[in-house]
Write a structure and sequence with these properties.
Elements lengths: L1 H18 L12 E7 H5 L2 H13 L2 E7 L1 H9 L5 E4 L2 H9 L3 E16 L12 H11 L3 E3 L5 H13 L8 E3 L4 H10 L4 E4 H7 L6 E4 L6 E9 L9 H11 L2 H9 L2 H4 L5 E2 L5 H4 L2
Parallel strand pairs: 1-2, 1-3, 5-6
Antiparallel strand pairs: 3-9, 4-7, 4-8, 4-9, 4-10
């Protein structure tokens, strides 16, 4: 998969050069890396803000693979990504303990929100996350899950467990897709769903969904960057991984994160956390 990604990038570059009547220049190979990250960083538009600035600052080109956190960790495990930007802390800790990853650093956080139709047939509005999920299950109101082993899916499962619920039956529907697609399906079905706030805000104008539960410490959504090493495979580029990890926790990148979303939504979508401890966030 990794070789295929780089081949596609190379072919596209060659086509563009040919179209301009130029021949590819001889010289050292382009410095490029693969970032495996979550759909929330793509669907919110954050990657569009960060990656060009990273390339300008370092010269490294980035191919971003936006998948669920579980899939991103698996890409790292197979040596098919150089660096990971993910938001599933328990799974990340277990992954790092396997020994193929390098440093894991706190980058930023936002929060999860429980969304549903304004009519709120389950009566979840204003409740804490766990109690709201229990109400939805008791009412057997439609709940649309990502079902994709993402960080959002992991948090959803944690909330069901704490509510003492084993979800299933016709009311519980799994998309197996990313956050953006799951939000659209939940809106079409007048259902409930759990979302990271950034993706919801980026798409809310097209969604008949409203925030019903928020602000609970159990809804905190924490992102880390994880560098891969050649212990995961000979194709891993640890220099690129370190360059990205060091840049995203640097003051210029953290300032970009702090401002992202203000112009469009009147509020930032993420809170920069480099240099903080996760315990201080309440996670």
């Amino acid at each position: 998969m990794r070789r295929a990604v780089h081949l596609v990038v190379a072919l596209l570059a060659a086509v563009l050069l040919a179209g301009c009547g130029a021949a590819p220049a001889a010289g050292p190979a382009e410095r490029s890396l693969i970032l495996a990250t979550t759909t929330s960083t793509q669907d919110s538009g954050l990657l569009d803000e960060l990656l060009p600035e990273f390339t300008r600052a370092t010269g490294w080109q980035v191919t971003a693979l936006a998948v669920g956190s579980g899939q991103a960790l698996e890409l790292g495990r197979r040596g098919e990504a150089d660096v990971l930007l993910v938001h599933s802390p328990a799974a990340e800790e277990a992954f790092v303990a396997e020994g193929t990853a390098g440093a894991r650093r706190l980058v930023m956080h936002n929060d999860f929100v429980l969304l549903g139709p304004d009519a709120d047939p389950a009566g979840a509005r204003g409740l804490g996350g766990v109690e709201a999920m229990a109400r939805i299950a008791a009412a057997q109101a439609v709940f649309v899950s990502r079902g994709d082993d993402s960080g959002t899916h992991a948090r959803e499962k944690d909330l069901w467990t704490k509510a003492g619920v084993a979800p299933g039956g016709s009311w519980y529907q799994s998309t197996g897709q990313g956050m953006g697609a799951t939000l659209r399906i939940a809106g079409e079905k007048d259902g409930y769903t759990l979302s990271d706030r950034a993706t919801y805000l980026a798409q809310r104008e097209a969604l008949p969904l409203t925030v019903l539960s928020e602000g609970d410490r159990g809804l905190l959504n924490i992102y880390h960057v994880i560098e891969m090493t050649r212990r995961a495979g000979d194709r891993v580029q640890p220099e690129g991984a370190t360059a990205f990890a060091e840049w995203i926790v640097s003051p210029p990148a953290q300032e970009l994160i702090a401002r992202f979303g203000e112009a469009r939504f009147g509020r930032p979508l993420f809170v920069p956390d480099a240099g903080k401890s996760e315990a201080a966030l309440g996670g």
